[in-house]
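re: the backbone from monday

yeah here it is again, tokenized this time
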């Protein structure tokens, strides 16, 4: 099955619109922020650990992880969005962590 350029653009727009509709809820935005904080925890935690203990390995680990996640072609935000929507769909919608 070969797709032409217009069909691909239409599918991409539809996918982005669905993602945007899912992220409009304030609970989802808060959950996304929490997921981003947790994903960046080794970085800011490593810098805090270095600041308080002066252990150079903490600085090296935090800097190398920051270099990796801030690098080009690293899917940090798509990964955070995926994790957020996964948690929302599997926990919030089943009534385990919030109302329906």
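seq for it, each position gets an aa:
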């Amino acid at each position: 099955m070969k797709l032409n350029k217009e069909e691909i653009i239409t599918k991409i727009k539809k996918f982005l619109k669905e993602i945007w509709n899912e992220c409009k809820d304030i609970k989802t935005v808060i959950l996304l922020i929490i997921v981003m904080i947790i994903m960046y925890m080794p970085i800011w935690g490593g810098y805090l650990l270095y600041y308080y203990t002066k252990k150079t390995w903490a600085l090296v680990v935090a800097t190398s992880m920051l270099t990796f996640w801030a690098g080009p072609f690293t899917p940090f935000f798509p990964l955070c969005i995926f994790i957020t929507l996964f948690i929302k769909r599997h926990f919030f919608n089943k009534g385990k962590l919030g109302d329906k």
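The longest helix spans residues 5-22. The helical segments are 5-22, 26-39, 41-53, 56-70, 76-92.
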